[in-house]
Amino acid sequence: MIYALILGRVYTLSLAEIVAVLKRGNVPSKILEASEEAVIIETEQPLDFEKLQKELGGTIQIVKIIDVIKKREKDSINFALQNYFTPSKLKKDYFKDYSGKKQFGISVFLLDKKIQAFGEPRRLGMFIKKGLQNQGISLRAVFPEFNSLALSSVAITKNQILQKGASICAIASPIHVYVGKTLCVQDFEDYGRRDYQRPMRDEKQGMLPPKVAQIMVNLAELPKGKTILDPFCGAGTILQEAILLGYKALGSDISKTAIRGAEANLEWFRNRYKIAPGKYALELSSAEAVSEPFKGKKIDSIVSEGYLGPLYAELPKISEINANFEQISHMWAKALEEFKKILEKGSKIVFSMPAYKKNFREYILFPQIDFISNLGYTIEDLFPTAVRKIAPFIKETERHSIIYDRKDQIVAREIFVIKN
Ligand SMILES: C[S@@+](CC[C@H](N)C(=O)[O-])C[C@H]1O[C@@H](n2cnc3c(N)ncnc32)[C@H](O)[C@@H]1O
Fold first, then answer.
1. What's the 142 CA to ligand 1 centre distance in angstroms?
2. Which of 164, 250, 273, 371 ranks highest by number of CB atoms within 10 Å?
3. How far is residue 148 from each of residues 72, 82, 105, 166, 369, measured CA to CA in Å?
4. Atom of ligand 1 at shortest distance to CA of 304?
5. What is the pTM assigned to this prediction?
6. 235 Cα: distance to centroid of ligand 1 (angstroms)
7. Is residue 305 within 6 Å of ligand 1 at its C-beta?
8. Distance 398 CA to ligand 1 centre (A)
């Protein structure tokens, strides 16, 4: 079976998450091709795609590949598919039985940036539409917006394309077109609910988006049912996502207000998502002394956003940045030393540190991270060699961390996975 996983905006993080989740779930699979947009995987068994989609914060769509069509490099995607989309093929493999007016969407994804595909989705869609109309089937086509080749999850959901017809996808490499249909898309409304409907939100602390919290939890590659600690739990986003993924969660924070907020949020979350009681505990504590309140508890992994320092509307002076780095590295050095008391050898810590955005592609990173190796931790390489070969576009720092940033933010997050 072949599937395409369509990657979110911070594609390196999305790919790292896919690698971790397939490994954790023991899904026998092989990555065939990958780009910044899509990962093509081959599996021995059919994927439980709905479950997988819910678990992957960085994947926005899962596509079932129905056929792989050969293509010459110079051929356009439409030319390669000119004999493929016959009405009988479409009726048999693509369209759902739906008695009302059918809807279909069309998206093109590229496995190589060099492929010229401007206008291809519209041409493909018109061809499909005409073919079916000639058979007396009335249907409406939904095309990507002018400057895009693919429909967003929002467009697919809002137009009810999966219920009323098909979201047809062509994923092109220079020599192949993988053709298939969308099985499911990311439930953006639910992620929004898990973020904005919580009773306590503190914008000043910088809220971690639930998707990113989910990715960070997944990067710990921990079997379900184990216990994750977030010693800088803030509003409890990481705890919430850990619980939803099937873990037990422990949280602590130095601030009483944060703990009260996390309590209120997790209570809301437990009711909203019908979570059984006893899945989490919260304590007031500094991270540097966190072994005390959780004495006797087995902690399998630590996942934490950590304190990022002040948030800024514009890039602060370098002296201010250096002072922040100094303070935060002291805090982390002490906290990492403390974590040694509660973590077994081989356990992982996923955490983020601030990275200051200089311009749209340059960052000022922590200059000194020796405190990690000085304490006997090693930074994990998140990509096996086989994946690196297929995915030369991976964007990581020299020290194997990955940056998550948002357009409007000066303080980005540098995400590390380290091993005790
Ligand atoms: C960036 S926020 C965490 C945000 C959280 N991940 C969320 O999405 O809600 C950082 C938190 O670290 C806490 N904090 C700062 N210094 C701390 C320390 N030394 N020990 C424990 N918590 C600390 C702050 O009170 C704050 O709640």
1. 44
2. 250
3. 24, 22, 13, 19, 40
4. 6
5. 0.96
6. 8
7. yes
8. 27
> What topology does CATH give the domain 193-419?
Rossmann fold (3.40.50)
pLDDT in tens, the chain (420 residues): 999 999 999 999 999 999 999 999 999 999 999 999 999 999 999 999 999 999 999 999 999 999 999 999 999 999 999 999 999 999 999 987 777 889 999 999 999 999 999 999 999 999 999 999 999 888 999 999 988 999 999 999 999 999 999 999 999 999 999 999 999 999 999 999 999 999 998 766 668 999 999 999 999 999 999 999 999 999 999 999 999 999 999 999 999 999 999 999 999 999 999 999 999 999 999 999 999 999 989 999 999 999 999 989 899 999 999 999 999 999 999 999 999 999 999 999 999 999 999 987 899 999 989 999 999 999 999 999 999 999 999 999 999 999 999 888 899 999 999 999
Phi, psi of 220 (to 5 degrees): -75, -15
Task: Tell me the CA–centroid distance for residue 317 and ligand 1, in Å.
Answer: 24
Closest ligand 1 atom to Cα of 258: 27
Residue 255 Cα to ligand 1 midpoint, Å, equals 8
Burial call 302-326: b when 16+ CB within 10 Å, e when fewer? bbbbbbbbeebeeebeeeebeebbe
Instruction: Give yes or no for residue 238 CB within 6 A of ligand 1.
Output: yes
Q: Within the chain, which residue ranges are assigned CATH 3.40.50.150?
A: 193-419
Residue 385 tokens read as 């060699």
> Quick check: CB of 232 below 6 Å from ligand 1?
yes
Decide: 61 and 182 in contact? Cβ < 8 Å.
yes
> Does any ligand 1 atom lie closer than 6 A to the CB of residue 245?
no
Cα(375)–Cα(58) distance, integer angstroms:
31
Q: How far is ligand 1, taken at its centre, from the CA of residue 332, in Å?
A: 12
Range list for CATH 3.30.2130.30 in the chain: 2-186
Say how many residues make up the chain.
420
> Closest ligand 1 atom, CA of 285?
21
